[in-house]
């Protein structure tokens, strides 16, 4: 349910933009000091889609929300039957964090489509497969091993964002380079894929991965011993040039192509979108602003935090209205100290504004 504060925010922003002429040039929208960047480029042609009028009111509403949030943030919004992408810093590389699990899942489903894997294929994980941070599967592995299926790992990876399940699947299709090759072969554009969770998280913290870090407390203890200068320098370097960086525009386009069925077989498309629509992560992010009756399929991403500063706090989604119209909505907060409630309010404001715009059409 959308809270009263968010309803008031969306209503106010949409009311403010309702009187804007559809002929106004988007480049006239000012850039606020809270989001230092070049002037926003709000329209990018999608020549493969039919022509549709540019939604100036929606662009202004999104810009107002973006400009009022304190942090380095990228946004991209595209409509399935449109020829436009509204974006703010949408062509810059932003840290993906667990959003990158989406490309692993697509590569796995593609391998299934090609007969190289199957959902019921049995696999065994051991303690050597453990990574860092969020890995609920560690309890099942315990001090020994855990035998399960590809389907179970996909469920854990996409619905619960399990890092160990993700990295195991990544290796099953050939490792990081295989995922990069898949991204390139599908023509996704400005989307990088990092070295895997444990190596990415170690480097982001200012560490070099060591096998003993599969004990998460050992990882945290080693990280805690680093100097403030080392932690800050590592985080600065990650945000400036993220090895898992992706542009919000590229992610939005990929999401729409997934929804259209351009990437996977019909059955694999349905399977993956169902996992995304039943995810239990990030209920207070974009999902919190989606009205009843809309379908919502998404993937979150959450980076490390140091002294109140977070590198990567994301949600990327396909929102589908009751009439069947779909929107890709991508919000990537690359760097912020803003408290969680404000981040939630910001993300919910974006998704609620998209829904409000659609319902006014």
Structure description:
The protein is α+β, with helices and mostly antiparallel strands and 361 residues long. It has 13 helices and 11 strands. A hairpin with a 5-residue loop joins strand 1 and strand 2. The radius of gyration is 20 Å and the shape is globular.
Mean pLDDT level: 89
- Computed Rg: 20 Å
Please give the number of β-strands.
11
Percent range of helical residues = 40-55%
Q: Per DSSP, what share of the residues sits in E-state strands of 2 or more residues?
A: 15-25%
| String of helices and strands | HHEEEHEHEHHHHHHEHHEEEEEH
Derived from helix and strand composition plus strand pairing, the structural class reads alpha+beta
Coarse shape: globular
The separation of the N and C termini measures 22 Å
Q: Spatial order of the strands in the main sheet?
A: 2-1-11-10-7
What characterizes the major β-sheet? 5 strands, antiparallel
Number of helices, where a helix is a run of at least 4 consecutive DSSP H or I residues: 13
User: Spans of 5+ residues with little confidence (pLDDT < 50)?
Assistant: 16-47
